[in-house]
Fold this sequence. Notes:
Layout: H1 8-13, E1 21-24, E2 28-32, E3 40-46, H2 61-77, E4 85-88, E5 104-108
Antiparallel strand pairs: 1-2, 2-3, 3-5, 4-5
Amino acid sequence: MAPDPDCIFCKIVQGEIPSAVVYTDDRVIAFEDISPSAPVHLLVIPVDHVTFLTGLDESSEALIGHMALVAGNLAIEKGIDDSGYRLVLNQGPDAGQMVDHLHMHLLGGGPLGGVAT
Ligand code: AMP
Ligand code: ZN
């Protein structure tokens, strides 16, 4: 999907607003959450402007799987693979989704308990 000029994460993908990028490839980028809820709080997002999980079909399976694998590799890089971590994908208002560009939170670096994003 083409970049959405009003989407903050599209702007990050295009380098129009600064972010602390920790990983990038042709399908996803990962960067530090600007308002971390845990000692390690990264966001893994598609390069393309994909909005919601709901509505995706099988053609997006590889993308979602790739996002999870990248998050898992970043957990290793951050040294939190043994201590544990959480992947969160908020969808819609009840989950508190604030940015309508699909994103996976990687949270860890300390006990998470009921930490929300
Ligand atoms: P969600 O509630 O799942 O939509 O999460 C959106 C996340 O994006 C929040 O954790 C925000 O702190 C984060 N966020 C919003 N703007 C930025 C930004 N410019 N750079 C990095 N993270 C951001
Ligand atoms: Zn976008």
